[in-house]
Amino acid sequence: xxxxxxxxxxxxxxxxxxxxxxxxxxxxxxxxxxxxxxxxxxxxxxxxxxxxxxxxxxxxxxxxxxxxxxxxxxxxxxxxxxxxxxxxxxxxxxxxxxxxxxxxxxxxxxxxxxxxxxxxxxxxxxxxxxxxxxxxxxxxxxxxxxxxxxxxxxxxxxxxxxxxxxxxxxxxxxxxxxxxxxxxxxxxxxxxxxxxxxxxxxxxxxxxxxxxxxxxxxxxxxxxxxxxxxxxxxxxxxxxxxxxxxxxxxxxxxxxxxxxxxxxxxxxxxxxxxxxxxxxxxxxxxxxxxxxxxxxxxxxxxxxxxxxxxxxxxxxxxxxxxxxxxxxxxxxxxxxxxxxxxxxxxxxxxxxxxxxxxxxxxxxxxxxxxxxxxxxxxxxxxxxxxxxxxxxxxxxxxxxxxxxxxxxxxxxxxxxxxxxxxxxxxxxxxxxxxxxxxxxxxxxxxxxxxxxxxxxxxxxxxxxxxxxxxxxxxxxxxxxxxxxxxxxxxxxxxxxxxxxxxxxxxxxxxxxxxxxxxxxxxxxxxxxxxxxxxxxxxxxxxxxxxxxxxxxxxxxxxxxxxxxxxxx
Length: 568
Description:
Elements: E1 2-4, H1 7-11, H2 16-23, E2 33-37, E3 43-46, E4 49-52, H3 60-70, E5 78-80, E6 87-92, E7 98-104, E8 108-110, H4 117-120, E9 126-130, H5 136-150, E10 155-159, E11 179-182, H6 189-200, E12 204-207, H7 213-224, E13 228-234, H8 238-242, E14 254-258, H9 261-267, E15 272-276, E16 284-290, E17 293-297, H10 300-308, E18 313-320, E19 326-336, E20 339-342, H11 344-352, H12 359-364, E21 374-375, E22 380-381, H13 383-394, H14 400-404, E23 407-412, H15 416-426, E24 430-432, E25 441-445, H16 446-451, H17 453-462, E26 465-469, H18 474-522, E27 528-529, H19 535-546, E28 551-555, E29 562-566
Parallel strand pairs: 9-13, 9-16, 10-11, 10-12, 12-13, 23-24, 23-25, 25-26
Antiparallel strand pairs: 1-8, 2-3, 2-7, 3-4, 5-6, 6-7, 14-15, 16-17, 17-18, 18-19, 19-20, 21-22, 27-29, 28-29
Keywords: ATP-binding, Nucleotide-binding, Plastid
Protein name: Conserved hypothetical plastid protein
GO molecular function, one term: ATP binding
């Protein structure tokens, strides 16, 4: 990643006894902010924690020294340094005098959004959630540049506090070709949002910190006009927005619905339930809990429905590693008290089956290295992870069912809460869904299936197996769930045995390439010949070599044809 922070310009506005310790500090590159409060020692805040910069306390003269170099503060008590991304916020006393300053370091970090590059290419509206300081503004600044420069879209930024594009009339180069509209007063942000759509014909509008009901309404209006939205909001989790009366409209809003007796019985729920009121303004929601650890909900409408119905939520965790690789793991969670509790049994199964990557990231970018497929201590390959890599090479895309390893069950006239409690107690890799079109199997009462021809027609057209039970007691449901798992395991074993020999040879061939590259080509700067392989295996070896930016060629006659790798 390339980082531009203009830190020297921020240090120039600070008093000497605050500036000099920072100039010599070993961790200045990770500085978050500098805090100066009247009568207290100056404090520098780093990711590892705060640290005092001097034994001398801040006086009125020190604060005035900074204020004269900064300029005027707006109604939101914020100011900045022209042509930089730094933000200076003030604390005032009851008389309106400034008694404290928070000097926040603004950084343009290029490469942060490679973790969600595939989502930007879909042209869907994105909502970024996270607590203050986690990196939401940095992320949407980079999103603006990528959309404007690399995807050549008409992008307009609604910059309320000049935090995205910096202070001054000329925006910071970090936003690329994107245009910036400044907001005179924070309470006018929603008006500027509508003005941008009506006057400047944007394809994308970027909004930072949606926080009022009018701004949420404006975002919905913009979405209904077909403009792509990228916005941020405070909130750690997706379900925290549902209970927020101001921001719930961003994800469709909620309403109480009273069901009839038959419908409540069919759903296995109470008569009064919560349902989503409308379509969400944002199709994709991203929770940023850490700078390199994001949770993605690619279908917000379905995620909201699952949360409201109390079902386990399938979500996607994306982890950006220090070596440039991106891990994408599918996890199952249970929404409770506005926090996700990870279902350990599902997570362990997902980790056992390997970590899956997007095909586009592997083939288009060099971000994803294959080093993570090996145990570096003994240079032996992880067979399960290799299988996921081979799957990606041989297929153009991965279906969601391939990722989750979880059977989706649709209950018909059976209490879904009873089924979920049995699944949880037995720790079965089965999820319950209310959408019959997404299900893998149907579990129904025998008497009701005979009377419902439509259900049988849907199951036949979708190739969904219907399992019936005599009644909905725990004994019958448990027996049916175990039968469903046994049939799936038999099918899995049969298909696995057919491809076991082929996968073993491919894993062995990739292990040979890895050792040859690391030990000989890179380590000793020498060329090396590999063992002869079949054409299909050589193709995989060639793609593996190409990920290291090395040259190779094949020679010999079939079936003894082999590859030779050359140092760069």
